[in-house]
Amino acid sequence: MIIFVPMPNSGELMKYLLYRIILIQILITLSPMVIQAQFSEKAGHYEDIAEIEKNKNAWRLDTKVFTSNLSLQMQNYEVKYYRLNLNIDPDESNLYGSVVVQGLSQIAELDSIVLTLNMSMQVDSVAGNIHSWQRDDDLIIIRLNSPVGLEAPFSLEVFYRGNPQAGGFGGFGFDEQDDEPVIWSLSEPYFARNWWPCKDFPNDKADSVDIFITVPENLTAVSNGSLKSVTTNSGNTRTFHWHEKYPITTYLVSVAITNYAKFSQWFKYSPTDSMEITNYIYPSDLDFAKEQLASLPDMLSFFHDTFGPYPFIDEKYGVAQFPWGGGMEHQTISSQGSFGESLNAHELAHQWFGDLITTANWTEIWMNEGFAAYSEALYFEHVLGKEYYHIYMGFKNKKYEGTIFRADTTSVGSIFNRIVYDKGAWVLHMLRHVLGDDTFFGMLKAYVGDPRFAYGNTSTQRFREFCEDYAGRQLDWFFNPWIYGTGRPVYEYSWQTSTGMDEFIVTLHIAQKQLAEHQLFTMPLDILLSSDTGDTTVTILNDQISQDFEIRTNFEPTSVVLDDENWVLKTVTQIGDGAPGSLNGYQLRQNYPNPFTETTRIELQLPFTTAKPVLKIYDIRGLLVKQMRLNLPNPGANHFTWDGRNGEGQTVASGVYCYTVEVDDYFSKKKMVYLH
Domain coordinates of the chain in residue numbers? Predict the structure, then answer.
């Protein structure tokens, strides 16, 4: 969706980029113009898309959509075609229009058609096989003369007018640039209804759309698909006819109008075929935009090769400048207020992920935004290399609240939380490492090309099942915690080296210490073992809250690093230094889970000892509830389990309990909560 492009921390990023220029010039052959654009602070690299879109939508973040139960009746039919006929008066900020809606009944007797249209717009009449119509808040209820049978077609036309609401509702705006009017639309997620009557839900795409836009003759009207004609009318107006031949959902239908200057680029997708990239820019910004958009053909070529053919190859791609600082991925023509590399890549990638394949429900907007945000990183890997790819993903490593799955879709602010962008991108980054590059990129291309998804809709479950079928393995253990769960793994690890027969044995302990309300994260983890003589990386599967591993090497490591390349979204701490014979001394750790209802696990870290540790559990009055002894302690991690029963086997009362451990000269005390 929408984006702006400031540097997140321009000073720090520019220091790094200047440091890297020499290496990048050696590694990558780029034209001077591209180099200048990529290291220009004005162009920027990392652009905080989520923050930009949030700021861009600040005026409507608290906007809520309320519709009556009548909206459920929209499931009774399927839209096949729209024809918008729009006459726009910039001086009065008014729109006069009509919309033809053609569709098919999905029930045995369809006796009414329900459409969405904001109450700020007045309905004058409805034509067709119509008995009557009425308004109900932002709905139009149209009664048919006679019921329409299952899979039978219907057609009607709504005539309407008014001043479309932007402000607190979004959707449509009247602005100025250089004393010229600018008229624009931005309908995501549910603001198409603010300026045209339609079935304003993402999961019903019209097969095609015609858009006729009549404007004063000095203005140019830009929309989706191909420009079929420009007709000069009496009264000093012109009518632009655009036709979108590919399936399209309502929020992607676009108008952008001003005294545009047009410039073209060409995307050569085969030795004999090219597609025009058509850009519509404010005349005063034309030279700057030409510089900033110079890499669009390369971006198209890269995404075309990586994801599969550009989905609208028979029409166009382009950018139409509009007043906001970010961007919106209108099908075949992104509306943008700035032209940084991240923004350009993000909006272009949406043509595959968002436009070609569209989320079926706003709860899963990450299927649009997470994919587009990740595509930014892929493009920079393409031009600047793998090391910068990891740096770029690091910019998206933020503290996130809540889940990627957005349960509340009545608020724009809830839907477009930054978590769906940044953490969504990290899900794909991690999935790439889980599957491996060959499988991951093969899967993406197959997903994009699958007719079950292409020009249709998707969901997390369907995507997960597709990944599982393609990779030949279950992936619910991956998707469930990352999409529907909260937080991230908080790893603590320690290690010790001992000597075996012609080898060294590294005993590695990993504990997940995230809060109890967060779940276990099962993840493959790369472990880098290094010494002065060399290094090696092994991959382990961490699928327990507390887990021990033995790794055998032919050299004695001086360091052990967990996930050194940052393929996992995590927090990690090394406990101790891995010195032989110590295994980090004594440490009593917090029980997990806490609070608990059935059983809880208490971990005790020990050095080499012959003593037998004693764990004692006390109630809040200081009375001993239970005592447990570890008769055969191991160096490293040891565990006690308590099920809420006292020494006599009786279940204790809910409440706060203390537990202590005594071993050698070590004593420690902690609290836990038992609920039943």
Answer: 10-62+343-484, 71-258, 490-574, 587-674
Q: What's the token pair of residue 618?
A: 């006390």
User: Which residues, listed in sequence order, are joined to residue 97 by a DSSP beta bridge?
Assistant: 86, 160
DSSP-assigned letters across all residues of 160-177: EEE----TTT-EEEEEEE
**Class of the domain covering 587-674:** mainly beta
pLDDT digits (tens, 9 = 90+) for 634-666: 777 788 999 999 999 999 999 999 999 988 777
Nearest to 279 by CA among 291, 264, 267, 259: 264
Q: DSSP secondary structure string, 403-464?
A: -SS-S--SBHHHHT-HHHHHHHHHHHHHHHHHH-HHHHHHHHHHHHH-TTTTTEEE-HHHHH
Averaged pLDDT for residues 356-382: 98
DSSP 8-state symbol, 290:
H
Q: Which residue has the tokens 């559990």?
A: 617
563 near 570, Cβ under 8 Å? yes
Architecture of domain 71-258: Sandwich (2.60)
Can you give the pLDDT at residue 56?
A: 54
Whether the CB-CB separation of 642 and 602 falls below 8 Å is answered with yes
Strand (E) or helix (H) holding 181: strand 180-186
Beta strands 614-618 and 523-531, pairing class: unpaired
Query: HSE-up of 518 (CA within 13 Å, CB side)?
Result: 20
Token match 């993000």: residue?
346
Find the mean pLDDT for residues 240-246.
99
Q: What is 490-574's CATH number?
A: 2.60.40.1840
**DSSP H helix total and E strand total for the chain:** 13, 35
Report the pLDDT value the prediction gives residue 254, as an integer from 0 to 100: 98
Q: C-alpha angle with apex 30: 26 to 36, nearest 5 degrees?
A: 105
Question: Cα separations (Å) of 133 from 112, 125, 141, 149?
Answer: 9, 8, 5, 20
Strands 503-512 vs 490-500: parallel, antiparallel or unpaired: antiparallel
Q: Where does residue 491 rank: exposed (0-12), middle (13-18), buried (19+ CB within 10 A)?
A: buried
User: Strands of 559-562's sheet, edge to edge?
Assistant: 534-542, 523-531, 559-562
Do 490-574 and 587-674 show the same overall fold? Answer: yes
User: Residue 653 corresponds to which tokens in the numbers above?
Assistant: 């009362």
Please state, as a whole number, how many other Cβ atoms lie within 10 Å of the Cβ of residue 108.
Answer: 11
Return the closest-CA partner of residue 135 out of 147, 148, 124, 146.
Answer: 124
Mean pLDDT throughout 129-143?
96
CATH number attached to the domain at 10-62+343-484: 1.10.390.10
- Whether cis (ω within 30° of 0) applies to the bond prior to 595 is yes
pLDDT confidence of residue 7 = 33
Q: Please give the backbone phi and psi of residue 464, each rounded to the nearest 5 degrees, phi first.
A: -60, -45
- pTM comes to 0.81
Report, as an integer, the average pLDDT of 109-120: 96
**What pLDDT shows up at residue 217?**
98
Q: Per-residue pLDDT for 351 more than 70?
A: yes
For residues 37 and 373, give the distance between their C-alpha atoms in angstroms, rounded to a whole number.
20
Q: Is 364 helix (H, G, I), strand (E, B) or coil?
A: helix
The first and second tokens of residue 8, run together, are: 């997140």
Other Cβ atoms within 10 Å of 234 Cβ, number: 5
In this structure, of 64-78, 255-269, 277-291, 391-405, the range with the lowest mean pLDDT score is 64-78
Q: How far apart are the first and last CA of the chain?
A: 46
Mean pLDDT across the chain = 89
Distant-in-sequence, close-in-space partners of 78: CB < 8 Å, separation ≥ 6 = 103, 104, 106, 204
pLDDT in tens, 168-226: 446 899 999 999 999 999 999 999 999 999 999 999 999 999 999 999 999 999 999 99
Among 606, 629, 607, CA closest to 616:
629
